[in-house]
């Protein structure tokens, strides 16, 4: 089972090209990266993010990735635990929304200029 | 064994929040992410990148991460195969240099604004 944790704490730091990451910072960033380092999760995140209001119903995520609902739900949970998505329930369906700033924080840590 | 590939092809695409990644784009980006999703590799990359001229001798990378030379060399090779580092040999030692633009390309794919 992939261990994931909230990304917000990894947001503290300067871009990794500016000064060497500490062991703790590297652990946190690697944990966030692991949540992203899967093609299905990247596609799910991308579909949610590109949807209106950066939000999508789980019912609209199954077909595009061509996987079972439990598998899709597992991947969504990993992205949620890692702080990239948040979930709300309306009626029968769960909706997933991009957490504002979460991807940008990772992006800024990797920026080289 | 982690499969890695050149990141340059993953550089083609719009930020993943702008339009959904295709399956092929997601595979490529996930492969690059896997190379980064390891705390030792992030630290090595960060130490190299923060060094003068974004270049460091392998002899200066062993001690900071506290691992054996073969282990460090394995991680450096993964980063090289993924297109983040390039290697040159001068005298006895190998030097690793950040590939210009490689981290920025990943950063730009993740940017949300």
From TrEMBL, chains A, B:
- Keyword set includes Zinc-finger: no
Q: Which residues cross the membrane?
A: none
Q: Which UniProt keywords apply?
A: DNA-binding, Transcription, Transcription regulation
Q: What InterPro entries does the record tag this protein with?
A: ArsR-like_HTH, ArsR_HTH, HTH_ArsR_DNA-bd_dom, HTH_MetalResp_TranReg, WH-like_DNA-bd_sf, WH_DNA-bd_sf
Q: Which residues form the HTH arsR-type domain?
A: 21-113
The UniProt entry, under PROSITE patterns, shows: HTH_ARSR_1, HTH_ARSR_2
Query: One short Pfam family name for this protein?
Result: HTH_5
Q: Which domain of life is it from?
A: Bacteria
Instruction: Provide the protein name.
Output: Metalloregulator ArsR/SmtB family transcription factor
């Amino acid at each position: 089972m992939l261990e994931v944790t909230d990304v917000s704490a990894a947001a503290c730091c300067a871009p990794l090209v500016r000064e060497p990451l500490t062991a703790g910072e590297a652990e946190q960033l690697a944990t966030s990266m692991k949540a992203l380092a899967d093609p299905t999760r990247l596609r799910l995140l991308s579909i949610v993010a590109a949807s209106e209001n950066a939000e999508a119903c789980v019912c609209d995520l199954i077909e595009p990735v061509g996987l079972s609902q439990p598998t899709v739900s597992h991947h969504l949970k990993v992205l949620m635990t890692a702080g990239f998505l948040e979930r709300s329930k309306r009626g029968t369906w769960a909706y997933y929304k991009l957490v504002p700033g979460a991807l940008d924080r990772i992006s800024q840590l990797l920026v080289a200029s």
